[in-house]
Amino acid sequence: MSDLPKLSGPTLPPFAGGRPRKIVVLAHGYGASGQDLNGLALGWRAEFPHTVFYSPDGPDRVPGMEDGYQIGYQWWPIRNFSAAESEAGLRYAAPIFNAFLDRVLDHAGLTEADLALVGFSQGTMLSLHVALTRERPVAGVLGYSGALAAPKMLEPLIRSRPPVQLVHGDLDSLIPPMAMDSAANFLRRNGVTVETHVSPQVGHGIGPDGVDLGQAFLSRVLGPEK
Q1: What does CATH list as the number for 11-222?
Q2: What pLDDT score was predicted for residue 54?
Q3: Is the pTM of this model over 0.85?
């Protein structure tokens, strides 16, 4: 495990100060960075005053997206959107992300029950896979504009069934809304409680309704801060 890349990125300590009582980890999309989802954390943190928010960059830079101003990161390379590519990508990225989660939990002295994952696009794919394959369930997974990257690989590996909230724009042309429905159907068949929401007039992004719904979901699954 020590040879795995160590993730880093924006971190927002608890709004109220002191040691965190809850943790939210946000996983960005392909070609983005932790800074992209840090805005969500900034908007939510006053409502979760004892929560630390982590928005790590993916383990690798996207070739051609290094112009000195905006560096794009990836959880795994995307070239042809094939099942083999997704499976290989998850085998690479999941241990790295799991190691990061273990590290932040250990640092805070908290457990998976105090941890929620938030993903966007490729980050949703990673968060769903990791959450369902960890030995102990996290508090919940909030996924925006995503999909299940490798359901055939995932199904026999499922060990945990945290609650899931999926949100998708109805105008998303990159990952169509039907991907959310397919993911939800798969998760329900495998005993996972899933809620879905389609944001009207939203493309591959997060609308205000999605932000509010996400905040409500996190409040529900994380519960009162100790």
Answers
A1: 3.40.50.1820
A2: 98
A3: yes
